Amino acid sequence: MQSYTIGQAARLLGVSPDTARRWADAGRVPTHRDEAGRRLIDGPDLAEFSAELGKSGNTDETPSHTSVRNAFPGIVTAIKLGDVAAQVEIQAGPHRLVSLLTREAVEELGLEVGMEATARVKSTNVHIDRTT
User: Fold this and answer.
1) Between 91 and 125, where is the model more confident?
2) Separation of alpha carbons 114 and 74, rounded Å
3) Residue ranges per domain, the chain?
4) Domain 3-56 - what CATH class?
């Protein structure tokens, strides 16, 4: 299972590391420490928190500005596999993106809930890039 540092989680949530740290301190997202003493958030916990945050629209910060208008780095919050097709949901800051793709593509990418990924949007199509 993938875990994220506070800084990595902040980038995926679209907030500052200070905001992510405050949320962790307040118990809004569970953390644990690694051997080096860094606070980590397990991928599934971050995915759940990210989805909740996206529903509420409350990130406590204004959205960042970027010239890359069609790339949404985020975290995989849900995967629904069928016999042939699959549905992958990514929460990228306040944005929830859904991609319909083949089951084979999901398996080749090794996508799992809690994993970092980037959704790339062109027109009405959402493509998924595995980030790590």
Assistant:
1) 91
2) 10
3) 3-56, 71-130
4) mainly alpha
